[in-house]
Amino acid sequence: MLQSKLFCKAKKTAPKDAEAISHQYLARADFIEQSMSGVYRFLPLGFRVLKKIEEIIRREMIELGAQELYLPVFQNKNLWLETKRWETFDPPLFKIKDRHQKETALGSTHEEEITDIFRKRIKSYQDFPLYLFQIQNKFRNEMRFSGGLMRVREFLMKDLYSFHSSEEDLIKFYEKVKKSYFKIFKKCGLKPICVEASSGTIGGDLSHEFMVPCSIGEDRVLICKNCGFAANIEKIGEIKDCPKCKSQLEKNSCIEIGHVFNLGTKYTKAMNAEYLDKSGKNHFPLMGCYGIGLHRLVATIVETNHDEKGIIWPEQVAPFDVHLIQVEDNAKVRKGAEGIYRDLQKKGIEVLYDDRGKSAGEKFAEADLIGLPLRIVVSERTLKNNCAEVKNRNKKEAKMIKVKELAKFLC
RNA sequence: CGGGGCAUGGUGUAAUGGUAGCACGAGUCCUUUGGGAGGAUUUAGUUCCAGUUCGAGUCUGGAUGCCCCGACCA
Q1: Is the CB of A159 under 7 A from strand B?
Q2: What are residue A285's phi and psi, to 5 degrees?
Q3: Which CATH class for the A320-410 domain?
Q4: Which CATH superfamily is domain A21-307 in?
């Protein structure tokens, strides 16, 4: 991608309302733009990040044996009446009326939808287990929106639902999903801790949250450094000593980036979704649901991967792999840079090529702000030795690499 | 939903009730190019509706929007 053609234009100043560092950098680097309170537009750079994360998650879900589907945003009121969640307003639904005054809602979660699909076509024990997931926008009528992408009213979410014929099978899968979540978050450059949580309004007997320690986090988590026990303060209250080993607990602010629930038979019972076992007896299947909020994930990645100059994208979620910068806009330098641009692209490396006539300092500052993992500088000075300068965004020192060996060096 | 705050070009800011100005950005042209360059030129603003006043960005009332704190959440 030629930066001269890139729709996103870096800015020197952030909107004055942006307090969270992730909000400031994402806005300044022009990844996102606010449209209204709690609603954000993803511009081309931001969208590329979203797509990268989506693909990491999708691959892991498929690895788990889950099948992807796509459910409607419009939710049937009757389904929500069945589970008695329509009136409780929990999770906070956006209720709307059509022109015939018929009520419907925008999806805030999809347990009702998925259970309805399930009960219409699963009748036998032979169909278990079943795993279905989607990556789709959720709408939540929260009391308040805050922190840029941290808490918004419309956000992209991966939601996975599992159906089981035995508790044992559910627990086994539940643990598998937890492992898979750790893999996903690691690829996103995050090191979350898994904590016991209260299930809140989604319901169920058991749930775990994935928490990333961060000062702007809204959750308070108690961690035992001795035995590794960790729990949301919401679940266990303000206790001082570890319930497992009696050591002193440490209090941490955390961002919740994922949540897994053992729902038991809450939804299958409420919606009368039954199946027949071997002996022809009716049973309610057990359910699990597992969510990751992608907008918050983007914000959390930036919150925990930046320096005073800008974002430092983890490799796998960066909008491009390489930021190629030409210093001095003359025929020789341009020819050198264009050659590298073509070579790298041929190798399947995604390159953002700064071909603009801006000053070197300005280009470097913008490159640091945008935060691609690798920066390659081409100038008269480097070309004199048939070299280009290669620098990691998260390192101070740069290396001179022969232009001919660049592609090989990077692969 | 309760409490607090703010509202001026795209962004950040100024203007005793009396000419809406500055900087950055953006556009065009020229000169520049190793850490946010210079010149020329162009562009664009008082959230909305009432009221007070000879005169309102400024005062009053209302609406709307946005931010922060609490409860809620991925």
Answers
A1: no
A2: -70, 160
A3: alpha beta
A4: Bira Bifunctional Protein; Domain 2 (3.30.930.10)
Q: Is the CB of A319 under 7 A from strand B?
A: no
- Any idea where the domains of chain A sit in the sequence? 21-307, 320-410
Q: From edge to edge, which strands make up the β-sheet containing A94-97?
A: A74-75, A103-106, A94-97
Which of the 322-381 residues on chain A come under 7 Å of nucleic strand B at their beta carbon?
327-330, 357-362, 364-366, 368-369, 377-379, 381
* A181 pLDDT higher than 90: yes
pTM: 0.95
- Six-digit token string for A103: 């009520």
| The residue type at A277 | D
List Cβ neighbours of A331 (8 Å cut-off, separation of 6 or more).
Answer: none
ipTM: 0.91
Residue A36: count other Cβ atoms within 10 Å of its Cβ: 9
Cα–Cα distances in angstroms (integers) from residue A108 to residues A95, A154, A273, in the given order:
10, 9, 21
Nucleotide of closest approach to A209 (CA, C1'): B74
